[in-house]
Amino acid sequence: MSRTKVIAFANNKGGSGKTTSCSNIGCALSMMGKKVLIIDGDMQLNLTLSFFDEERALEYASNGKNIYTAIKEEKDLSDFVVPTEYENLDIVPSTSLMSGIEFDLFPKWQREFVLRKCLSSIVARGYYDYILIDSPPTLGGWVMNVLCVSDFVIIPVEASPWGLFGLANMFDFIGKVKEISPRLEIMGIMVTKADERKTYFKETLKTLRESEDVRVFDGYVKVDSAIEWSQDNSKPVVAYKKYSRSALEYKKLAKEILDYANR
User: Fold this and answer.
1) 5-9 and 130-134 beta bridge pairing
2) Cα–Cα distance between 120 and 116 in angstroms, integer?
3) Cys-Cys link to 191, which of 59, 124, 220, 221 (CB 3.0-4.6 A)?
4) How many other CB atoms are found less than 10 A from the CB of residue 108?
């Protein structure tokens, strides 16, 4: 039995495509026959809403079947996993109560490792091939928890004039995490919302690929209205419009992730 690999999607800048990338990569991996668990770690519930309509998402948010309850009460995450409509793909939903997670973590013993403790039995069983975690656009104790439990971190970056803003802070934060969790590795920067007609896209890609010690994924995701339509229908684009441009791009990135994780 192969070891479960945990991958975080993180960037302290909002609007970078973290949630869209996490949901579509997770769904694409499950379509490739991999058993995948995704964890919604953001108070906005967007990852949860990528798989359930608003009524169902709010039900999980209010009935305690969510990541906040598990972390606050330091419970085994196995009890908070719910299936999606897709084979091989499960999720731990979120709730708006995650807005107070930093306050709840502060007094806990070894607070940087609470998520690791809650996830330990799932990882030990090796039932899932991949666990993907969507994190909020912050650099606090909760994101440190997410990174401390992860083997890899993927940093989605929007191909825009402000897309690179704050990236140095992200790398500094990851460096601090590695001091207490040395196994964490940056898998790479994933460029999203790319418009090949725009000069700033080419400049963003050039700047990233010329940077030392920064791996950039070969594939990237272009701007595509199919993504918005899929979100409006509470489905990942790889399932909603399987042969759309963005769906094919995310499937290519999923293959690239598999190749890197198993190198």
Assistant:
1) parallel
2) 6
3) 220
4) 15
Q: Is 125 exposed, middle or buried (0-12, 13-18, 19+ CB in 10 A)?
A: exposed
- Give the largest CA-CA distance in the chain: 51
Query: What domains appear along the chain, each with residue ranges and CATH number?
Result: 5-261 (3.40.50.300)
1 confidence band (pLDDT: 50, 70, 90): very low
The token duo for 186 is: 């940056």
| Beta pairing class for 152-158 and 5-9 | parallel
Choose the weakest-confidence range: 47-51, 123-127, 195-199. 195-199
